[in-house]
Structure formats: structure tokens, C-alpha cells
Amino acid sequence: MSGPILPDDVDGDSRPAGSPPEIEVTDSHVAQVGGMTVRRALPRRDRRTVGAWCFADHMGPHSVDEEHPIEIGPHPHIGLQTVTWLTSGALLHRDSLGSEQPIRPGQLNLMTAGHGVSHSEESAGRFHGELQGIQLWVAQPEATRHGPPAFEHHDEVPRVDLDGATASVLVGSLGGVTSPARRDTDLLGAELNVRSRTSTALDPAYEHAVVVIEGAVTLRCADESTRDVGPGHLMHLPPGHDELVLDPVGPTRLMLLGGVPFESKILMWWNFVARSHDEVDAATAEWNGGSDRFGDPGSPLGRMRAPDTPW
Ligand code: MN
Questions:
Q1: Phi/psi zone of residue 31: left (φ > 0), alpha (ψ -120 to 50 degrees), beta?
Q2: Which terminus of the chain faces fewer neighbouring Cβ atoms within 10 Å, N or C?
Q3: Which helix (H) or strand (E) holds 130?
Q4: Which residues have their alpha-adjacent CB atom under 5 A from ion ligand 1?
Q5: Ligand 1 geometric centre to CA of 276 (Å)
Q6: pTM metric for this prediction
């Protein structure tokens, strides 16, 4: 999906009084994107990035039919990668590199924007039924963010059986398997299907986040109380954890995201990840002016117009 990042996305939840717990839980912001309800776990006011992960929209479940198609018209990106992962349904991705790629559960679409790309996301053919998944953005580091755009589709990703869970590794390495997907920083993205108590080894140099898609996990708090965390939240583990123990409340599907804390602060506005207002102003003017910078994904849907910047 596209963003956009608008002011509501930065109205985060206040931290609880007293010292923050080691594992922090924030509420997602509920938004409408392309006719679908999404739970935006990132970015939040108090949590801009987890490693290079800077955007996480849990989309659906949404019932797709002729009257309720997915229609996210052509829009641009700079400085980020989009990672699309479905748990049910189908989508069609088109981009200005000439890609026209349907995606289904278990498959990975990864688009690198670099200096500039545009894409659309649409209902796939005659698909009718439930659509659910997650759209993630990865901030590109200085070394690659001015580079050329690119697109990868992976028909399958590595899977590994953990005790009590099965992991699909989208990006990076987990449980001894490594995804072939491009990554520009030290990063992990995996889906875990958790059946019973499971323990996963973590890289203590990474910070991590858990976003539950279906089901719930029981979180043990510092005061020995417990709470069940389901969809609509982000659990954050700071660096230093070398193990993640998950106690599911019934069958649970969740995303595990991680990475080394990002190299710099980023500026996110609409569909752009940048470092300065000038960069966003330039991208906004060039997109709205029809510049060649962003190409044309050849979608039948109407182009989105970039909103005025708030500064
Ligand atoms: Mn997009």
C-alpha cells in the first residue's frame, strides 16, 4: 500500500508514568487507505523506526468484491523500500520500471525507490474474497537512497521450523535460514505462525518489534502481571535481548521485525522518506509537475496528487 504519512500518524500515545517497561507496547493508529482499514503500527510519535523499518500498516481483513476493489492509484516514493506480504487474498503491483506483478500469500514484493519510482496497487484480476496482509517500508541508508529504483518478486521465501512455530523469513536471517531479498542495512523481517510456547534467538545488536496479525501473545510485565497483546499494537524490544519467548493465546500469526538502530533521523512526509524539507519540497513539486523522475506505472487508476507540505 501507499502511505500516506499525515499529521495523525504522529499523534502517538503518551508513555505510561514511571520508568518505561523493558518491552514497550504502543497502540496502532487506525486509518483508511485505498478503501481499506489499516492499523498503522509505525511510525508513531514515540517510535519512528525499528532498525530501518519505518512504516508498518496491517491491512484488512477486507472483503474485496466488484463494489469494494482495492484502488491505490499511481503515487511516487523516494528513499525507501516497500515490502508487501499478504496472509490472504491477492493484489496486483504495477510500477514505473515496467513491473506488473500479482502477489499472493507466501510471496514477497520488494520495491526499492532510491531517487524515485512510482507504482499502483490494485485488485488482482477477478479476485474476490478476503484480503489481509502487511505493508512495510524500509528507510534506505545514505549509501543507496540516491540510487536507481529496483523491483524484486520472490515466489517463495525460506521457511524454518522452530520449536512451537514456523517462520517465513522475508528479509535477513532467522533460525539458520537467510532470505535472498535485497537488504541495504542489517535487518530482519519474518512471519511467525506460533502454535505453542516458542523461543527464538535474537541478535542482541538489533532492536526488535512484534506486530500481531491474528491471535494474541501473553506479555509478562515487570510487576509480574500479564496482558494479552493482539492486533493493533506494536511491542518493542530495545537492543540487548538475545531471546524472544512467545506464549500464544491460541494459534497466532505475527510479524517479527528487527535491525540495527538506524544511522540517522529521517523525515517522512506523504510517500517520501528524506532527510530535509528541501528534498521533500523538490519531490512534491516534481511529482505534481509530471517530471520524468518518477516515470509512469501504466495503471488505469488516476494519479494521486501530493499534498502541500505543512512547513
Ligand atoms: Mn506505495
A1: beta
A2: C
A3: strand 129-139
A4: 2
A5: 20
A6: 0.92
